[in-house]
UniProtKB/TrEMBL annotation:
Domain PhoD-like phosphatase metallophosphatase: 153-343
Organism: Durusdinium trenchii
Lineage: Eukaryota, Sar, Alveolata, Dinophyceae, Suessiales
Record CDD domains: MPP_PhoD
Name of protein: Alkaline phosphatase D (APaseD)
SUPFAM superfamilies: Metallo-dependent phosphatases
Length: 549
């Protein structure tokens, strides 16, 4: 009898090497009989499990072994099944010890590329020294040719651990979405910086091994990821959904960028820059970037494989990548802080060549203009760390996408800790220029999970007002901010910077729909209070907004 590849996987004996591990190979054996159900999973897998970077034939699985539970040469297995009871196994493999090197901080990333079926949901677990992890769920992509009618994403950003609880992550775990997109600031490099952390939650305070309030090297970054990943509500989300991630600035340093003139990492607020009036030590700054990239690659379940011997960040890790959801949508994930020209051309060429109905750009910082006023000569921008600081590049990209005939462009954005819906233009200088030639697409911003939004920043900034002013109950003007923002920025349709949560973005053949969820960040329960504050649709072929609720 001839066996299919799937049947061969199920029946092959010991000794067959299969390319399952990103940092090693795996050997096929049977593992079910070796599970000791009396040991809690947390004793071995303290950070639980996660999955990421799906493809039609695979996904990346992630876990970490507690160092205290590690034993050299102990059995280590990964199982993937069609059912939660693991009766119908599709992968049952032994992972060799060298797949968990010490330099990866006991983390493991397993690539299942080539072993799964398209557009399927699976259950998976790890088994180390007879102890099974909690069960995770993962999802593969449809094939590029598949006729997909709907895809639904949960969208997240900016989850400062010290500034609130992860109820939003727990509530998103319950949602019926296909994948979760994380647009960056998965961690914050600082743990007590008054610019970002007001520390109103004493049980969320923690210290770094380097003794500073900001990460100074690899061990600090690793410690931050371990702290974030220890949160049970975050674990609940990552166990439930497959994640597609990009970084923003705080995975490395606030307002960071690549300094092309000096060929080093730019981190204006970091101690490595401030300690030297000439702009800091280039070697220290470059190493800081390499350390942050290494920690990200260890703790985020992605298919991006580091070049361990590289000494330049551009050579160490290439994070921009795309994902295709049948004929319906293609998602381009970019990093606006590092690669510049090569990535820009990759994005432009990829979108121009994409045959899908919707072109989706996973973008860290606000792409549109956000003006707070105007002088006789120029607009006054709120944040030049966003695309407002790179107006030529923004106009160039939008112009070329328009010239290439790209339609149904949707940009998904984070960073500002704000809900927003905005039209994308080539030229923002003329307020009323909303003609067809100038409008390229739409942009939806997801709010912060916990990070300080404009209301919180303003409230803390005015917390020292006199008692007399407090007694008069002076209204905080940020409550009128949506009206003011829309008056100054007529391309912005919806704006709210008073709440926290997440968004869900659905694509189908008729429209793209953005649903903004608010979740109380002060509630540490899995059932934290949530509500829908706005639902907006953009019809296919027409970059406009229709308020649904």
């Amino acid at each position: 009898m001839s066996l299919s590849r799937r049947q061969f996987l199920r029946h092959a004996g010991c000794g067959l090497l299969v390319p399952l591990a990103s940092w090693g190979s795996a050997t096929r054996v049977r593992a079910q009989s070796s599970i000791n159900s009396t040991v809690p999973p947390e004793e071995v897998f303290g950070l639980s499990v996660a999955s990421g970077d799906p493809s039609p034939r695979g996904v990346v699985l992630w876990t970490r072994i507690n160092p205290a539970a590690y034993q050299g040469g102990a059995s280590f297995f990964v199982q993937v099944a069609e059912d939660s009871q693991f009766q119908n196994l599709v992968v049952d493999a032994a992972v060799p010890p060298d797949a968990m090197p010490g330099h990866a901080d006991f983390t493991v990333r397993i690539s299942l590329e080539g072993w799964l079926d398209p557009n399927r949901r699976y259950f998976y677990r790890f088994i180390y020294n007879g102890v099974a992890s909690r069960t995770g769920e993962c999802q593969t992509l449809p094939t590029a040719e598949a006729d997909v009618d709907q895809i639904k994403f949960g969208v997240l950003t900016c989850q400062d651990f010290t500034n609130g609880y992860y109820g939003a992550l727990s509530r998103l775990a319950e949602q019926d979405v296909d994948f979760v997109i994380h647009l960056g600031d998965f961690i914050y490099e600082s743990v007590g910086d008054p610019q970002f952390q007001f520390l109103p939650f004493p049980d969320r305070v923690f210290e770094l091994p380097g003794g500073s309030t900001v990460a100074l090297g690899l061990e600090d970054f690793r410690a931050i990821y371990r702290q974030y990943r220890s949160d049970p509500l975050m674990q609940r989300l990552l166990e439930r959904h497959t994640i597609i991630s990009i970084w923003d600035d705080h995975e490395s340093a606030n307002d960071c960028y690549w300094d092309y003139e000096r060929d080093t990492f730019g981190a204006p607020d970091h101690p490595f820059s401030k300690e030297n009036p000439e702009g800091g030590d280039p070697a220290k700054l470059t190493q800081l970037k390499l350390d942050s990239m290494r920690a990200w690659s260890e703790y985020i379940p992605s298919s991006v494989v580091p070049n361990q011997g590289a000494t330049h960040p551009f050579d160490f890790l290439q994070i921009y990548r795309k994902f295709t959801f049948g004929s319906l949508a293609e998602l381009f994930m970019t990093d606006e802080r590092t690669y510049r020209s090569p990535q820009r051309q990759w994005l432009l060429d990829g979108m121009a060549a994409s045959p899908t109905q919707w072109k989706v750009w996973g973008n860290e910082v606000f792409q549109g203009a956000f003006n707070i006023g105007k002088t006789r000569l120029t607009d006054l921008h709120f944040n030049v760390d966003a695309w407002d600081g790179y107006e030529f590049e923004r106009s160039l990209i939008m112009h070329q996408l328009k010239e290439s005939g790209v339609t149904n462009l949707v940009v998904l954005t984070g960073d500002m800790h704000t809900y927003m819906a905005s039209r994308l233009k080539i030229d923002y200088r003329h307020r009323d220029n909303d003609n067809h030639e100038n409008i390229v697409g739409v942009e939806f911003m997801t709010p912060g999970v916990t990070s300080s939004n404009l209301l919180e920043l303003f409230t803390n900034a005015t917390s020292r007002v006199s008692q007399a002013a407090r007694r008069e109950n002076i209204e905080i003007p940020v409550h009128n901010l949506e009206r003011l923002v829309k008056e100054t920025n007529p391309h912005i349709h919806f704006f709210n910077s008073e709440l926290w949560g997440y968004s869900i973005v659905e694509f189908n053949r008729e429209y793209c729909e953005y649903t903004a969820y608010s979740v109380d960040k002060a509630d540490n329960s899995a059932e934290a209070e949530q509500s829908i504050i706005r639902k907006i649709r953009t019809p296919s072929g027409s970059p406009q907004f229709i308020d649904v609720m």
